[in-house]
Amino acid sequence: IEVTEVELLSHKARYSCLRPSPLVCPNQSLVEEINIIRRSRHLEGEERSMLSYSRAISVIKAYPRIITQRDLHDLHELPFLGEKLYSMIQEFVKTGRIAEAQTILADSRFQSLSAFDTIYGIGPHTARRLYDLGLRTLEELEQYYEVIPGASNEETISLLEESTNTEAAVEKTIKIGLALRHDLSHTIPRPEVEEINRTVMQELSHIQKGCKSVIAGGYRRGKPQSNDVDIVITHADWELGSQKVKGLCKKLVQRLHEQGLVTHVMHISGFHEHNALRTHHWDSLEKALTVFAWPHNSSWPRVYRRVDLIFAAPEVFWTAVVGWTGSTMFERDLRLWAKQQKGMKFDSSGISRRHDSKLYYPRTERDVFKVLGLVHVHPTMRNA
Ligand code: DGT
Ligand code: MG
């Protein structure tokens, strides 16, 4: 591993991967107020505007103390806080509210689009299309899609087929999302996340011995409750592991389905994300986005849980773990940093140097940061 010069961490840095950001920050209520406006831009498809709000929120998350009147002049030293954001913060410091956010909250279109957006398979685009059809509530959506709440037929999506993005496939996904919406809206506490991981690895050991996993996603960033479980899996053998994980994803999902654990597969693929390097063995990241019926082997009433299974060869395991730990903004800036400052390409399936496509195989998570010329940021400080 070559070590380049390391940039120091600072809450004033332009890249969020250089700004340690806790799960709950000193200005959390300000963040939540601005987030209402950000969500509205997102739902209305105003992506550029949404990104500026995301960046502003991310900068505030890293600010080390409560913003008061006295701190306002300090804010001019921070990146991504333009005139508009500055006056919003001023308003919040004075009144404890931002009027625009309150207006948005009271808006019935925002309320409908927000509700639609909570359904797995429905994004802002589809939400707006459904709204334009005159639909306003989730109950009306159920009628429109002819879904009986709770009664999801468990073969709605054909298992183990490479996913397509056809209209029919999208509609199937939405139907499942609607049928399971009450279960999937319940967040998952940490002990249950851990138990799901243990069960997955137990089942996997019947197919392939010597595998290991890290629970990534919000869980790894310290969230007490998660919306889904993200498990990154590899084989412990650095030399031979690459061959051993190949094809494991489908085999595992098949087995979990036979055990009655996996009831739906929303998406499954051996994917080729690191496409600058298609000539190399970068088809090594396979993933399945599934629904589990949980708990397993129990007379307790079972609930549905979203579980993502990601398989990586040992050479790219820690890259994949970093790529799936998030937050989304942290990931976005890791990519940008790699590209703009280091002439490198980073994504969850690999790190490479642009000019000669040299590949990097970090052996630890610290090595991932080292390769990118970054100070290691603890997962619980990646909540940018
Ligand atoms: P939550 O909502 O409690 O599950 O919170 P998170 O932060 O775990 O959110 P999640 O599970 O949507 O995503 C976790 C991280 O994984 C996120 O930073 C982005 C990354 N990620 C999610 N989906 C994909 C994907 O399809 N491909 C890749 N490469 N990364 C993904
Ligand atoms: Mg997650």
UniProtKB/TrEMBL annotation:
Q: Which EC class is this protein assigned?
A: transferase
Cofactor(s) this protein cannot do without = Mg(2+)
Per the record, what are the reactions this protein catalyses? DNA(n) + a 2'-deoxyribonucleoside 5'-triphosphate = DNA(n+1) + diphosphate
Asked whether the keyword Zinc is assigned, the reply is no
User: Which keywords describe this protein according to UniProt?
Assistant: DNA damage, DNA repair, DNA replication, DNA synthesis, DNA-binding, DNA-directed DNA polymerase, Lyase, Magnesium, Metal-binding, Nucleotidyltransferase, Nucleus, Transferase
Q: What EC designation does it have?
A: 2.7.7.7
Chief location bin: nucleus
A single MF term (Gene Ontology) = DNA-directed DNA polymerase activity
Its localization reads: Nucleus
Q: Any keyword Transport?
A: no
Which biological processes are named by the entry's GO terms? DNA replication; double-strand break repair via nonhomologous end joining
Gene Ontology cellular component annotations, sorted alphabetically: nucleus
| Family designation | Belongs to the DNA polymerase type-X family.
Protein name as annotated? DNA-directed DNA polymerase
